[in-house]
Design brief:
alpha/beta; CoA transferase subunit A; CoA-transferase activity; Glutaconate Coenzyme A-transferase; 3-oxoacid_CoA-transf_A; CoA_trans_fam_I; 27% strand; three-stranded antiparallel β-sheet
Amino acid sequence: MAGFDKVVTSYEEAMQGLEDNMTVLAGGFGLCGIPENLIGEIKRKGTKGLTVVSNNCGVDGFGLGVLLEDKQVRKMVSSYVGENALFEKQLLDGELEVELTPQGTLAEKMRAGGAGIPAFYTATGVGTPVAEGKEVKVFDGREYLLEPSIKGDFAIVKGWKADRYGNVVYRHTAQNFNPLVATAGKITVVEVEEIVEVGELDPTQIHTPGIYVDRVILGTFEKRIEQRTVKSA
């Protein structure tokens, strides 16, 4: 078992090999299911010039938003960016390159990258600025764009449970983009709330097989709520 054990005990070890100008894929949706401690380690390391691919860029002061504070992100590939004032400022000031991508297309780009598919056709974005500079082909009388897939140097993922072989289970909506991200990184690092022994996870319930995972670390999480709505008494 020792040769297959993927558990590491420090965030420094978890993110070993991350260098300037790499591409990092990050799981999560809003602040749900984000690898908040792995993001924190990137900030601590001070790695710069990063291209970050994620549904969004967190919020001011939390999630991926903390990487904007020291201008560690050179380019952001996202489908939604409306919750971060610093993001807006850096974009308008020309300090941050942004590639807005339809959400379903973004998900498929990472899924395809993980599956070894270099590109795919989709009808989403035809006739819009999304189509600029892209090949268009007609199938059954309908136009489709050729979209390249996405792969990353690192994939950072938040799971619920994992075993020592790196098999991962996500909890409810925190699954979101995480399984797609996990398949598409040259190095995939997963932080989880609980590590169990091999054999304790039901094989039929595993969302990400351990073959995709390089490192697993046990973390504690704030799980901040992005938009809190309460009912008055």
